[in-house]
Amino acid sequence: MEGSEAVNARVRRLPPVDKLVEASGIDVELPRWSLLAGARGVLAEARSAILAGREDVSVELEELARLSRARAARLSQPWPVRVINATGIVLHTNLGRAPLAEDAAREVARAASGYSDLELDLSSGQRGSRTERVAELLCLIAGAEAAHVVNNNAAALLLAVEAIAAEREVVLSRGEMVEIGGSFRVPEIMEASHASLREIGTTNRTHLRDYERAINDRTGMLLKVHRSNFRIEGFTADVKLTELAELGARCSVPVVEDRGSGSFVDLREHGVPESEAWEGLRAGADLVLFSGDKLLGGPQAGILLGRAELIERVRRHPMARAMRVDKMTLAALHWTLRTLLDDRAEQIPVIGKLLEPPAALAARAHRLAAALVAVGWSEATVEELSSSVGGGALPEIQLPSWVVRIPSRSQESGKGRNANELSRLLRTGSPAILVRVHRDAIQLDCRTLCDAEIEAISMAFGKLFVDRSARSG
User: Fold this and answer.
1) Rounded CA separation 119/330 (Å)
2) How many helices (H) and strands (E) in the chain?
3) Residue 243: what pLDDT?
4) Cα(467)–Cα(459) distance, rounded to whole angstroms?
5) pLDDT of 397-444, one tens digit each?
6) Burial class (CB in 10 A: 0-12, 13-18, 19+), 93
């Protein structure tokens, strides 16, 4: 009973909401709604923690006001927050994958800031299709009969299965049952449809005869999924898409290839073994699916290319409306496709970063290192290393790159910050800077940096150097 009384006494010491709002808002310019939400959230968490028996929870007004003010500031600031990507991962899923070009962003702003002919045919005055214009460009680039766009590639897969193989079987190799980001698994996406999954082969070996044996009068689709975020080596066997397409044609079963990441630029001569997305169609697939915000370099979208009859079934399916893309996505995708048709692929940020020669990266690394030395980080050195494509694309590929390396200990004073602590300070600073940590040193990879970011990075490091010097002194 005494313990319960002590807990209740601590709860009663928590300040009322209005008093905490007043204390939180002193000397700060934050909206009242954010201060109110911050105060309520902090008090609710403190109350729950005290009732759970935690003794490390402060009930002092000053500490609660600090926590409330921090929460209010987080709620009221613009989001997402722009970050500087110094990890070298070109398609960083946690950082929004493909960054849009400035011209594409302007197209998005133009589409968003006024009315548009999104679903209106201006020549006839009749209702039009919101995806027709981008579908036309996709067909021009890929040589496809037809195309459709939905909000992401998982939606493209689910919609294709629903439209083509509902109440029937979809044949898939066990070696291609991938799990993508956020713990989403291809078999679970399939289970959400009205189709049945027919597993064939083993994890490491699947043969054409496995597909042949699986086909029956209930087979609705032969599905091939690109192993985008892992690879299998050793005693393996796989079925080429051309072989699968021949089997599908012979048995009148549609063949669908989920490429995961699709590009309209041949990157092989630049060390990235990725053929163009239309290769799947040329290999005989009836439908090819891929993401818009990976190697294509556009906005988040799911793109479907293939036979006109199948695309029409997908487009007319009732679920298509729930998966449709908005005007801003279409504006960015339309710019990206026009840029590719204009042979200006290097103006798409992802493509430009992948194609940038090592000599240019080395020059940027030396400029960055010089800027860091100028603000006090004399231990900054330049090294030749490698970086990743990322984004669930080509997991085994490492691209040659140049980094600026800063050890966690100063060579002069023997004093410094732990590399993980320095990484945290950079990540939580303004601007937020994400780096790699390796062997108790941080690395800033110049493949994902641009020259315009050097000044901001050097200013952030300059502030950290002042803080480090004050702490060491």
Assistant:
1) 12
2) 18, 15
3) 96
4) 13
5) 788 999 999 997 644 334 556 899 999 999 999 999 999 999 889 999
6) middle
Per residue in 103-146, pLDDT (tens digit) is: 999 999 999 999 999 999 999 999 999 999 999 999 999 999 99
Element (DSSP H or E) covering residue 291? strand 287-291
- Report the alpha-carbon angle 250-254-259, nearest 5: 120
Which residues touch 469 (CB under 8 Å, ≥6 apart)?
Answer: 376
Q: Which amino acid is at 182?
A: G
pTM for the whole structure: 0.90
Mean local confidence (pLDDT), 139-160:
96
Q: Radius of gyration (Cα) for the chain, nearest Å? A: 27
What's the CA angle centered on 191, arms 185 and 197, to 5 degrees? 95
Kind of pairing, strands 381-388 and 219-225? unpaired
The DSSP annotation for 248-268 comes to: HHHHT--EEEEEEE--SS--G
Indicate the SS3 state at residue 127.
strand
State the CB neighbour count (10 A cutoff) for residue 30. Answer: 16
- List own/partner pairs for 203-207 with CB under 8 A and 24 or more apart: 203/174, 203/175, 203/232, 204/175, 204/232, 204/234, 204/235, 204/236, 204/237, 205/175, 205/235, 205/236, 205/237, 206/173, 206/174, 206/175, 206/237, 206/238, 206/239, 207/237, 207/239
